[in-house]
């Protein structure tokens, strides 16, 4: 019993003497896989223990040519906001996140003789897991993305222009890395 009390006293005194860890108040995140499509994403978030929020921007910087084999190329900009909810943002945990954007970009679809001007908005909601290693974070999750665009489709072959509204729901996979500061 005496050994237990000595150990308890040791750990109690040691925890009082340990320096307090000061948490970072900001986080910057990006989606590295988006760079393959030449999309530059950036989230800046003010971080509390279980909630983060802030502005987001996406620069669609693909060349203005025919779309790639797997996806169209985009050239334009999206801006908006982001949030992250978790039990704690300073340790590994499940998270719920979301983004909302206003966007304006030109899309060059695959094997299409023209382009599309798209304006509108999109939002996503994601459930995933967040890993924290000192100041480096990574997030992986799955959710849904909702888009509402006004589309102006220009066909260079027939010199025709078609306008329509497009509302879509898509599966959204998120992989982001970040830095707490």
Give structural notes.
The model is unreliable at 4-21 (pLDDT under 50). A hairpin with a 3-residue loop joins strand 2 and strand 3. The two termini are 45 Å apart. The chain contains 1 helix and 8 strands, in the order αββββββββ. The longest helix has 16 residues, at 2-17. It has 181 residues and is mainly β. Helix content is 9%, strand content 64%. The protein has an 8-stranded antiparallel β-barrel with strand order 1-2-3-4-5-6-7-8. The radius of gyration is 23 Å and the shape is elongated.
What are the main properties of this structure?
181 residues; eight-stranded antiparallel barrel; 64% strand; mainly beta; 1 helix; elongated
Q: Strand percentage, roughly?
A: over 45%
Per DSSP, the total helix count is 1
Q: Enumerate the strands of the largest sheet in spatial order, edge to edge or round the barrel.
A: 1-2-3-4-5-6-7-8
Low-confidence stretches are 4-21
| Average predicted local confidence, pLDDT | 87
Radius of gyration: 23 Å
- Reading the helices and strands in chain order gives HEEEEEEEE
DSSP strand count: 8
The portion of residues assigned to helices is: under 10%
The major beta sheet can be summarized as: 8 strands, antiparallel, barrel
C-alpha end-to-end distance? 45 Å
The rough form would be described as: elongated
Given helix and strand content, the structural type is mainly beta
Brief summary:
With 181 residues, the protein is mostly beta strands. The chain contains 1 helix and 8 strands. It starts with a helix and ends with a strand.
């Amino acid at each position: 019993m005496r050994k237990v009390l000595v150990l308890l006293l040791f750990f109690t005194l040691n925890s009082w003497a340990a320096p307090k860890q000061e948490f970072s108040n900001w986080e910057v995140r990006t989606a590295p896989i988006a760079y393959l499509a030449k999309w530059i994403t950036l989230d800046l978030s003010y971080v509390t223990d279980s909630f983060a929020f802030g502005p987001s921007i996406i620069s669609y910087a693909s060349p203005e040519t025919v779309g790639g084999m797997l996806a169209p190329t985009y050239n334009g900009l999206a801006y908006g906001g982001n949030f992250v909810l978790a039990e704690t943002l300073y340790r590994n945990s499940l998270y719920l996140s979301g983004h909302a954007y206003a966007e304006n970009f030109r899309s060059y679809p695959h094997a299409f003789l023209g382009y599309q001007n798209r304006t509108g908005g999109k939002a996503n909601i994601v459930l995933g897991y967040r890993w924290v290693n000192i100041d480096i974070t990574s997030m992986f999750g799955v959710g849904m993305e909702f888009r509402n665009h006004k589309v102006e489709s220009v066909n260079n072959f027939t010199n025709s222009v078609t306008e329509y509204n497009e509302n879509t729901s898509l599966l959204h996979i998120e992989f982001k890395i970040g830095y707490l500061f």
